[in-house]
Queue: 4 jobs
Job 1
Amino acid sequence: MTRATPTPTPMVSTPKLVASNGSPPFVGGHLYRSVVGMLQNLCVTHPDVAFCVNKLSQFMNSPSNTRWKAVKLVLKYLIGTMDHDRRSTTGYVVYLGSNPIAWCSKKQAVVSRSSYEAEYRNLANCVSELLWVKQLLDEIGLSPCQIPVIWCDNASTVTVIARF
């Protein structure tokens, strides 16, 4: 597996992992159980493979060549995502009229537990930037005549913020 080609997904939709798939039995049953057990432990830090590992662990007593290929696919996925840090990217643009005057695109400093949390952090950074721009415009005597509009594409974040 050291020279394995990384894959972008941990599982494919075909062939389906079902109780009897007609695939010849895998001769390394102990190896299958050992690797799937290792993958179960890895699910603590890689929840993105939990569904696949759950499926694969249903066949501990009857490993087949098809199921072993599925195990190897999960391993290839993990090889390809080793350097992923799971931090979200923050991005926003502040416009004055139709002209961009401030913008940002960077990785967030911490790992967010949900897309809602990542978007909320992003909006907090955006509002901070807007306040700074407003102060700058006030200092130079260009007070904006419109209330700033903030756009967000995450429905749960918009719902929570609308309650404030």
Note: The CA atoms of residues 14 and 70 lie 10 Å apart.
Job 2
Amino acid sequence: GEWNTTVRVSSTTLLFYASFVRLLSSIRPGLVKKINRLPTPIAGLDNLSVFLRGCEELGLKGSQLFDPGDLQDTSIRPTSCRVDCVLITIYWLGRAANSCTSYNGPTLDLKEFEGLLHTASVLSFLFV
């Protein structure tokens, strides 16, 4: 029923948040001390916080980071705006990974983000 679907989505969301932290660990081993594996919303927020702090340690600026609320926002703001904020962080993290000597994994095709970056500058003007 509906309850099981809600639990499944919640579990998937928590795994998604933990995957952000694992991504940081693959870019710079040792950057993340611990992934919170508890199946609770607080654990998910903890992992998001660890991810965002780790991004800053890799050189990303606050303006390049999404807000945790972008992943939980239920306002009338279009979903595409919220997703774009997350993708912009992934773009900047990809650039940081490319310049990180300890990382030799797959790389993002940063050209795929060009339209998003233009849209982001327009959105930041409209929604700030």
Note: The CA atoms of residues 54 and 97 lie 12 Å apart.
Job 3
Amino acid sequence: MTRTACFLLVVAFALVSGGCATTPATPETLATAEVRGTAPADLKAQLGDAGFADLWNVDVTWSPIDDAVGYEVQRHDSSQADDLWSTVSEDTLSSEATSATDRYVGYDATLWYRVRAVLDASNATPWSSSWRVEIPKGDVLYEVEGTAASASITMSTASGTEQADIDLPLTTKSGEVGLCLTNPIQHPYISAQNKGRTGTVTCRITVRGVVESENTSSGAYAIATCSS
């Protein structure tokens, strides 16, 4: 048998931003803009489909403000300082805008988004309340092995929870040990229950080449559980 390996296809790509018919007034800097009015309401941020390799699209929407001449959208990565926010779009969005798409490169991240309306060259509304988005983990390798002859397994996949009865070790139809999921999932999980009265069962979860969880149980109908 050969051990399963996870491969990530790296694709060269370029993101080209389109032009706008008009350019709305923009505060010179975020720090100098005076705050007045009410922040845009109904902010939502949703994770869209993955793009090339580890590129993710996050769709941000909000309700418009009547006297806005434009909008600014920012993102915060929880791995950074609390007060560090980055602008999603280089230019202020138009007064008719009610959505923006952020393109984030990476895995296993918690992102926060917020929006505010630009009222004129020196005034803007307060920032809206923020909305959280979870970026899934990368390639996940599930492994189940042990001295027991067989086990019942339950695992999370991109399509939901799946169950199966297997002979140990967990092996693909092509004879590779372990099951590699190339579609990222947010919370990898696998459990294995010994179907016999003797022996051990071991589960293991490896994410992007790093073992994140491993457990072993022994005895009759013993259960080993791994999560990441």
Note: Confidence is low (pLDDT under 50) at residues 1-31.
Job 4
Amino acid sequence: MAQREPEEQTTFDQVLKLVENLTPEAQEQLVDQMKLQLLRRELGKAEGPLRCGEGIPAEEAFAQLEERYKRRKAGK
């Protein structure tokens, strides 16, 4: 069953008021769900090029990550 389009666009301020009425636990769950949704969206963006063979080999990716880790560790 398709969702009906709201007759009126919900404003950002209205959403904030709704969130403020949530319990702290529910607010935390909402934040976690939003982070998860953003992560899934970013993974979805990355998946397309990988399926087309546009990614880099795993060995190269891990070497880059290791180098980045070493630079961060040395900077602290």
Note: DSSP finds three helices and no strands in the chain.
